[in-house]
Amino acid sequence: MDFIPFTVIDFIDIFLVASIVYGLYRMTRGTNAPYILTGILLIYVLWVVVKALNMELLQTILGQVINVGVIAIIILFQPELRHFLQMIGRRQGGFSFLSRIFNVKDGNEPTLQPIITACAEMSATKTGALIVLAQRSDLSDIIDGGITVDARLSVALLENIFFKNAPLHDGAAIVQNDRVVAAKCILPVTQSPVPKSYGTRHRAAIGITETSDAIVVVVSEETGGISVAFGGKIERNIAPRNLMEAISKHFIINRESKRKRNKKTDKEE
Question: What pTM did the predictor assign?
Answer without folding.
Answer: 0.64
